[in-house]
Amino acid sequence: MRRYLSAAALGILIVAPAGAVDLPARKPGLWEIRMTSDGPQPAGQIMQQHCIDAATDKLLQDKFSGEQAACSQRDVSRSGSTMVIDASCKIANRTSHMHTVIEGDFDSAYTMKVSISLEADPGRGQQATKRDMTLNAKWLGPCKPGQKAGDIEMPNGMKMNILDLPGGAPSHK
After folding, report:
1. CB 62 within 8 Å of CB 73
2. Tell me: the pLDDT tens digits for 103-130?
3. For the chain, what is the domain count?
4. Which of 10, 44, 97, 158 stands 20 to 30 A from 133 (CA)?
5. Using an 8 Å Cβ cutoff, are 49 and 140 in contact?
6. Is the dihedral of CA 126, 130, 132, 137 positive or negative?
7. How far apart are alpha carbons 173 and 166 in whole angstroms?
8. Domain of 54?
9. Looking at 57-66, 99-108, 135-144, which range is the least confident one?
């Protein structure tokens, strides 16, 4: 369960360096998100279904665009439906360097490829790490009956609302 929760949080953090550059709004409805990752503890196909509406999508972007103060460098370029973001940021007192390539239309599907390197923090016994991740998102249609914006269903049956996670987006009532 912890692995899936971490993957969901990681999926949100991946978007953080991109938030301040005004990603296109995702089409409201149910999105299937598959994430693959390499590294010392590889994550296989993590799949989640995420129900969003325009307000939730905007709240998530607004929440994470506030993180830009921790980024000393952020370069963004766009060409057609491709966006490239390079950023150096502080994450949990460690400097990270991120290279993100986002392709797609945000109405039916998009792919986000992220390469993250975290510098070592010997004082805390943390080694330098590097991880490459790919997030593939596909719009499935309207949210399922009974779902509300922010709801996430994990493959193990766990359900949560991203807006209720500690440190997640602000609650909207």
Report:
1. no
2. 998 899 999 999 989 888 888 888 888 8
3. 1
4. 158
5. yes
6. positive
7. 17
8. 2-164
9. 57-66
